[in-house]
């Protein structure tokens, strides 16, 4: 559902940039899916199982494990930033486990579509060599 929501957001941004809005009702299927998901009782964030992303092929050698906790700035989407690019880049380095932190997610009627609410805990196990680039990654908001 996150990918579908990202596609809808991309279509809206493209429409604004080009002056050609998407066809009327293009978001209806996503809205129906969101409404159905919101009708279910909310589970605590701790009960969200990790989503394991298929590992990439990495060089042989000793493995290192990195734990990344990322809570994006609330204004992340206002400049069309794409958090999935970070996940895809990390996935190319090795085994990746991603767990969503939904504790800041408000009720649907209070949701601002331009605000980033979801945080992430990402565990990367990689055999890729550690470089100064990896050691000094700092995500600023």
Summarize the structure.
This protein has 141 residues and is an alpha+beta fold. Helices cover 28% and strands 18% of the residues. It has 4 helices and 4 strands, in the order H-H-E-E-H-E-E-H.
Description:
Helices cover 28% and strands 18% of the residues. It contains four helices and four strands; from the N terminus they run H-H-E-E-H-E-E-H. The protein has a four-stranded antiparallel β-sheet, covered by helices on one side. The model is unreliable at 51-58 (pLDDT under 50).
What is the gyration radius calculated from CA atoms? 18 Å
- Distance from N terminus to C terminus (CA atoms, Å) equals 25 Å
Q: Mean of residue pLDDT?
A: 75
Widest sheet, order of strands: 1-3-4-2
Helix content: 25-40%
What's the structural domain tally?
2
The major pleated sheet works out as: 4 strands, antiparallel
Number of helices: 4
Write the H/E string, N to C. Answer: HHEEHEEH
Structural class category: alpha+beta
Strand % is: 15-25%
* Overall spatial form: globular
Number of strands: 4
Low-confidence stretches: 51-58
List the defining traits of the structure above.
141 residues, globular, single chain, alpha+beta
What order do the helices and strands come in, and which of them pair?
Blueprint: H1 2-18, H2 28-38, E1 51-53, E2 64-70, H3 84-91, E3 94-101, E4 119-126, H4 132-135
Antiparallel strand pairs: 1-3, 2-4, 3-4
């Amino acid at each position: 559902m996150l990918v579908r929501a990202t596609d809808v957001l991309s279509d809206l941004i493209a429409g604004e940039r080009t002056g050609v809005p998407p066809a009327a009702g293009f978001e209806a299927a996503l809205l129906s899916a969101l409404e159905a998901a919101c009708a279910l009782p909310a589970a605590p964030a701790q009960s969200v199982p990790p989503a394991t992303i298929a590992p990439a092929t990495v060089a042989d050698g000793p493995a290192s494990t990195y734990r990344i906790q990322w809570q994006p700035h609330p204004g992340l989407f206002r400049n069309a930033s794409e958090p999935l690019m970070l996940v895809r880049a990390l996935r190319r380095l090795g085994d990746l486990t991603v767990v969503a932190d939904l504790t800041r997610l408000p009720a649907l009627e209070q949701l601002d579509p331009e605000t980033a609410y979801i945080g992430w805990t990402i565990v990367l196990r990689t055999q890729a060599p550690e470089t100064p680039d990896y050691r000094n990654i700092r995500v600023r908001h």
